[in-house]
Write a structure and sequence with these properties.
Length: about 100
């Protein structure tokens, strides 16, 4: 069972259902529609990929879609900004260490 780093929230009339998705083959839980990066962070996963040149860990930096530090492969699509991509049930997220350019 993954850690839960979410802040407790006040009771709401809108109950959200947790959904399962995978990160590097490990099943984790999040809420549908929240950014993938947020769901990963809430599970204690802060390293989304490693730098291809230095192998340093990379994760959320700007959180607003500008830096691309949070990019990963999502459902087979490379270089997806996880801070900008809503989570869906069954989404498969994989670390990607470098840019993947089709045909290069
Ligand atoms: S954290 Fe900067 S683009 Fe996602």
């Amino acid at each position: 069972m993954a850690a839960n780093f979410r802040l407790p929230v006040a009771e709401s009339s809108e109950k959200r259902e947790q959904i399962a998705f995978t990160f590097n083959g490990q099943q984790v839980m999040g809420y549908e529609g929240e950014p993938i990066a947020v769901a990963l962070w809430a599970c204690g996963i802060k390293t989304i990929r490693s730098c291809g040149a230095t192998a340093q860990p990379r994760g959320v930096y700007c959180g607003i879609g500008h830096c691309y530090e949070c990019r990963a492969q999502v459902d087979g699509v490379a270089n997806v900004r996880t801070c900008m991509t809503p989570l869906s049930r069954g989404t498969s997220v994989s670390s990607s260490s470098d840019w993947h350019i089709e045909g290069a």
